[in-house]
Amino acid sequence: MDLTRLTAFQLRDLISSGKITAKETTKAYLDKITVTDKNINAYVFIDPEKTLKKATELDKKGNLNLKLAGLPIAIKDNICVKDEPTTCSSNILSGFKPPYDATVIELLEKNGAILLGKTNMDEFAFGSSCETSCYGVTKNPYDATRVPGGSSGGSAAAVGSEEALWALGSDTGGSIRQPASLCNVVGLKPTYGRVSRYGLIAFASSLDQIGPLTRDVKDAALLLEVLSGFDPKDSTSSEETVPEFSKKLTHEIKGIKIGVPEEYFSEGIDSKIKERIEFILGQLKKEGAKVERMNLPHTEYAISCYYIIAPSEASSNLARYDGVQYGLRVADNQLLKNVKNPMIRMYLATRSAGFGAEAKRRMLLGTYSLSSGYYEAYYLRAAKVRTLIKNDFQEAFKKYDCIISPTTPAAAFRIGEKTDPLQMYLSDIFTIPANLAGIPAISVSAGTTQNNLPIGIQIMADFFQEQKMLNTAYLIEKLQK
Amino acid sequence: MQISKEIVSHTGHLARLHLSDDELELYSSQLNKILEYIEKLKKIDITNIAPTFNVLNLKNVLRVDTVRPSLTSEEALKNAPDKQDNFFVVPKVY
């Protein structure tokens, strides 16, 4: 039996009943990584010896009835794991080993999970292709000449190539859902505040959420219920009660109302993607769902709004990389001899050497939007437009249980294909609105294009209505089998 | 609106990024293209619309003012590029 082909629920039954051990399971994945990751480059750090030791300890004296007992998981490189390299795939954090665990890591370990390693990402999550990583691009498991998507491209490719059972990612403008769609896995962004951000290295604090990338919807529901809940260490975390999503999962959706926004089908979308989404909507109708065309009128402003707000927050969050407390320090640089203050020279030399091009571009854009004289025209205006985008969804959810759209306008693009930053930004056109509004969204498989590249369908729901979204996704998944 | 290389260079300094001439050239043209796209925000009427800075409309969260465990200085200094005794070492500031 190839253990790497099973879902979390299947593995959990085998482990808790003593048919296989946590060590065997972990070993199966480490072996798979050894064979496959040469070609995929999904992982940036692994420590097989330490990982196997943890699994062996669990077999010997652990509780095998814990929710995640013995189940190995891959972690995106922007989530802090105590004393393990955590670099956001950026040279500026080279050598950094956090002195504490993120809350999600504590929760995973408390529930018996085994950490497999850290996965590749766009530098500081700035990108949709994994091409901005300082460790080189990750390859799409379905076509090695194509990107896995991003920024959680390493996590999506690891799950897609069965180098991981499942993985954690983070989603600021689509960074879980877009790569999930491109790598044929399930990717879920929870409601803002549902999962603690403590220990997630900040990109844009009002948009970031940690979430699962999994083989199927049921696994996503299980991981979400473990990760969710109030955390006093995150002042934006919510006290909303957490349902047992995986137990409440049902294929019964009769009478559910689904809105299909016209705006998500107009912008140069691949015809095969459109066809697949329409086909699935037809299936849902047959199952008793009410499917209606509707409008989210401010959709066309979402990308503009996001590319003011996200870089502004990023430029502020990334000010902490100053060569003093952690990571890279470059003392000086020949070009800076006109700068008198040695401290400022160190800041400039360190940051100019440590950050890659996309990080610099976003910090410039963000600093500009926030600077004196431009704040009102850019940042404040974008924050007001964000209200309108959020209101569109609030109005829609008075009428609909779920909103369904494609996850991306096109399947995986070629490595090196998108050289213009704006073209890259436009690949997140359907995922960004959910982050601006703060609502949950999930991407599940919707089939493939003519070239056999994966396509994703996105289901969005109102604040804290993950269950409705998961049930719809669960049915869509079943209907595609 | 076009932003000049001088503005990009000044913005770079505010963000503590030193940009080479090639970088200035590249980023100026790319930022202009991005800002041109973003211009569409100006078409929307935002009169009387309140800004959204946080979707959950959270209030400040205060914790009880009591001593809690925290990182030791040794742990906090562990990742420092340069340190001495219980301090971070930085270049001279003047």
What are the main properties of this structure?
heterodimer; A: 481 residues; alpha/beta; 16 helices; globular; B: 94 residues; mainly alpha; two-stranded antiparallel sheet; 3 helices; flat
Task: Write a structural description.
The complex is a heterodimer of chains A (481) and B (94). Chain A is α/β, with parallel strands linked by helices and 481 residues long. Chain A has a single domain (1-295, 404-415, 429-481), classed as Amidase signature (AS) domain (Amidase signature (AS) enzymes, Alpha-Beta Complex), CATH 3.90.1300. Helices cover 39% and strands 13% of the residues of chain A. Chain A has 16 helices and eleven strands. Chain A has helices at 8-16, 22-40, 48-61, 103-110, 153-160, 177-182, 217-227, 245-248, 271-286, 302-317, 342-354, 357-370, 376-399, 421-425, 432-437, 466-479; strands at 43-46, 72-76, 114-119, 167-171, 186-189, 209-214, 257-261, 290-294, 402-406, 441-448, 454-461. An eleven-stranded mixed beta sheet of chain A has the order 1-3-2-4-6-5-10-11-9-7-8, sandwiched between helices. In chain A, strand 10 and strand 11 form a beta hairpin. Chain A is globular, with a radius of gyration of 22 Å. The two termini of chain A are 22 Å apart. Chain B is mainly alpha-helical. Chain B has a domain at 5-43. In chain B, strands 1-2 form a two-stranded antiparallel ribbon. The mean pLDDT of chain B is 93. The interface between A and B is large, with 73 and 52 residues.
